[in-house]
UniProtKB/TrEMBL annotation, chains A, B, C, D, E, F, G:
The keyword Chaperone applies. Its main location: cytoplasm. This is Co-chaperonin GroES. Pfam families: Cpn10. It comes from Ruthenibacterium intestinale. Belongs to the GroES chaperonin family.
Amino acid sequence: MKIRPLADRVVIKNVEAEETTKSGIILTGAAKEKPQVCEVIAVGPGGMVDGHDVTMTVKPGDKVLIAKYAGTEVKVDGEECVIVRQSDILAVCE
Amino acid sequence: MKIRPLADRVVIKNVEAEETTKSGIILTGAAKEKPQVCEVIAVGPGGMVDGHDVTMTVKPGDKVLIAKYAGTEVKVDGEECVIVRQSDILAVCE
Amino acid sequence: MKIRPLADRVVIKNVEAEETTKSGIILTGAAKEKPQVCEVIAVGPGGMVDGHDVTMTVKPGDKVLIAKYAGTEVKVDGEECVIVRQSDILAVCE
Amino acid sequence: MKIRPLADRVVIKNVEAEETTKSGIILTGAAKEKPQVCEVIAVGPGGMVDGHDVTMTVKPGDKVLIAKYAGTEVKVDGEECVIVRQSDILAVCE
Amino acid sequence: MKIRPLADRVVIKNVEAEETTKSGIILTGAAKEKPQVCEVIAVGPGGMVDGHDVTMTVKPGDKVLIAKYAGTEVKVDGEECVIVRQSDILAVCE
Amino acid sequence: MKIRPLADRVVIKNVEAEETTKSGIILTGAAKEKPQVCEVIAVGPGGMVDGHDVTMTVKPGDKVLIAKYAGTEVKVDGEECVIVRQSDILAVCE
Amino acid sequence: MKIRPLADRVVIKNVEAEETTKSGIILTGAAKEKPQVCEVIAVGPGGMVDGHDVTMTVKPGDKVLIAKYAGTEVKVDGEECVIVRQSDILAVCE
């Protein structure tokens, strides 16, 4: 089953705690309950959003940092995902 | 009886719990009271909404994910429906 | 006596409960106190509203669904009416 | 003494209760404390307001319906008036 | 000492109570603590304000009505003044 | 050490109480805790701010009036300064 | 490991207290808990943000002043960083 996000939305998946540690990015304080390092699963087409033309700059496979509490949680094929707007993505980890 | 949504509005219907399970999308935690996977029943014409030109990208029959609490509940021909704006639709499930 | 709404405003009148049942649209739960199915009585000219050009897409006689709590109640020739903006109208029932 | 409203503002005067009844428009419920049917006394020139070009569509002598609590009360030559924006005027009674 | 307001700002001075009575404009109710009839002392140049081009339509010497609580109080050469935006001025008294 | 404000920001310094009295501008009431008459220390380049082109109209050395509570306090070379947006400046004292 | 901020975002790192003192900028009062003088680590590409074209005017290595409470804290390679929007940067210290 495939999930196709609309407009400027991005489907992301939490990266496991082990991988997070390996990559060298650990979140401070209260951030422990909900990791902010995520992997991009699917990316919307962008286009006109609230009257502004949005170009998508992330792609599936990217490791991204998102603001905590951003987005809506869903479960796709038994895996917990979050759908955020691209503007909720703070940075890409390379 | 037919319901014709205005502007960027979309009429959606909750997909039964069984079908939700089959499709592999199950909503987490508090989402159980109000399923987020819905089927599109009717789609507005789009056009100028708050001064922005909106193109409709969903069509009747699409299975969509919506944010909980989005939209207004109505009952059409005895069936519970919800009217949302297209921007409340997070993703299409294929 | 005639009431002529300004800009994008629409004067609507509650449809009687009997007619509502007949048409097959019944509102759920808390909606019972204030029916959402209304008949359009008068339609403003549209035009520039908050800097956006608004085209009126409803006409007198249309049966429409409005969000509860939308609009301002007035009594015209002894009959209770509500004045809403066209953007408060969710859908037309055909 | 004359009062000249600026921009999209309109000076209105409450219509006496008797006249209100005669015209067939009576306001419901809590509206009794402050009648909503008013007569237009003076109209601003319109023009650029918040970056939007506003055309004035009401004229002195018009009977108008305004939302309760809209505007600022002033007393001109001993008579209580209210200054509202034209966008606070819901409809014209003819 | 001179005060030169920026952008769409206007420096105004309360008109004495006697003069207010003479001109025939008396403010109702709670308005007594802070008269709304003021004289314009200085006017900003207008121009681009929040991305909109503002043309100043009041001039020094004008008697104006302002909404209560609008603006910032300052004392210039021992005299209490208020600095408001032109959009806070409701009307000019002639 | 030099501080260079970004965009439409302006660095200002409180003018001493004595000077304030001399210039003839004294602030009323609660304004005593934080004088509003300030001297401009440094001015940002202006340019695009929130999508609007901002032209800077104040210059270092100007005595300006600012709204209380506007801006962020910093200490530069041991001297207390405040960084405000130019739109927080009400007027220039000449 | 590298962190690449998106859009108008900037990754900054707190400058040590000693260095802060040396540079002559000390923050007043409650600012002590979270220093506002930061060093820029990485800068996003700018471009269209909320429909406005943003040009980045800071560069890695710049010492900047940010408003307290701005941004999101992350830890990159064991070092605490903050991701802010460029518009949260008040000034550059030279």
